[in-house]
Amino acid sequence: MKPEYLQLAHEAYLAGADLRERRCRYKRYTYGAQWDDPVVGPTGEVMTEGELATANGNRPLTNNMIRQMVKCVVGNFRNSMHDAQPQGVNVDEEVAMRNALDELDCRLLEEFLISGCAIQRIVAEHRMGGCGVWVDNVSPDEFFVNAYRDVRGHDIELVGMLHGMSRRELLMRFGGVSGAKAMWLNGLYDRLQSGGAPELGKDAGSDFYTASPGRCRVIEVWTLESRNIVKCHDRMNASVFNIAPRDAATVRKINAERAKAGTEAIEMCARTTMRWHCRFYAPGGELLDEYDSPYGHGMHPFMVKMYPLIDGEVHSFVEDVVDQQRYINRLITLMDHVLGSSAKGVLLFPVDQKPDGLSWRELGALWANTNSVIPYYRTGNGVEPRQVVNSGEHTGAHQLLDIELKLLQQISGVSGALQGQLGRGDSSAALYEAQTRNAAVALRDLLDTFHSFRQLRNRKIAQTMS
Hints:
The protein is α+β, with helices and mostly antiparallel strands. It has a domain at 4-214 and 281-322 and 445-465. Helices cover 40% and strands 21% of the residues. It has 14 helices and 15 strands. The protein has helices spanning 4-15, 17-30, 49-55, 65-80, 93-99, 101-115, 167-174, 179-192, 248-261, 322-341, 360-368, 397-412, 429-439, 444-465; strands spanning 38-40, 46-48, 117-127, 130-137, 143-145, 158-165, 216-234, 239-243, 267-281, 287-292, 302-306, 308-310, 313-314, 344-348, 386-389. The strands form five sheets. Strands 5, 6, 7, 8, 9 and 10 form a six-stranded antiparallel β-sheet that branches. A hairpin with a 5-residue loop joins β1 (38-40) and β2. The relative contact order is 0.13. The model has no long low-confidence stretch (mean pLDDT 87).
């Protein structure tokens, strides 16, 4: 039987399966694998769209417009990120440089555009790069949270992530000072860990309880819990402090001594408060470590922003343009097929006009050579050898492709002006600047949401340092 909080974490992870599946699809489209959606073939078998197109005699082609749009938005963010630093919250320069925050934020924005999720983990710990506050981007594939609807995250009550640690890191973090716990950890993960090293750049197929080959799964779970405390007011020392109910007897003993001395007693009042509590689990449910939030903000270490979170739903920038991208790919594949199958330079040569002494192969060779002379018998029916050329332009695919490209810009908000494309020669600089500024309005909500995330992140960094 798994511990209660580990089961709750697993349920939260399973509840996010649809989000992770959609993120995987949008990531494939962003990085060029745009023919991998599953479809049902003519005989009922499941195959990819690319395999179906190939089976139908077409060559699946890709014109990746999504990647270009994502790079354009990230590039514009890089240009403006220093001017858009959150006001009133300054990150220590040493912390920003040690964590490479600018690079982290650009990669996180790319994730935000693809999946609609921006997640970072801010902790204070010792690493090889130094001791202090560390910020890490967290993949939605390794993250779980309870279903929540508040865009500020105020109704989050369970949050955590999956760690894939090396054996050395596992022993360093949880081995303690005695060798007994380190031996216990080694024995525990010897039974769980699978051998081998993950291939660089490939998804290793890890799940909730199983890490990538060669790694140790550790599950970090933070829960918001109610606690009974006793609030104490010591007027004699002008101090206010909280104690656990089990320590109330110690205060009563002090009050008894003060009563004998005739001094003022410590006032006590029982209260209920909320605390964030952390637990680290092994896949089998073994508790590796636990503690209350040690940070000045008293919260969990995660910064989470999901967009737009209307009724708790997450929809990304890339999601809006996937259908247009699919149709563009189909159109260029159709155009390639039509052009490839259209007649180009076909010679229609009447049989009764073929000259004696020349074979059809020799006639074809003469036709293919420049400055050649092809003799033929002129007949009375008026028919002569002629060449057939069909460009295939009458299909209307070119017009449809132009429409789809314009729709892609309108839906995404990434217009030619925002991409830095040159305007007409008779356009003034002021007009072009206005077009660029107006083009950014369509992305203002998305980018401002990300800026608010950075502002709250910077505040949490400052509170973690205190």
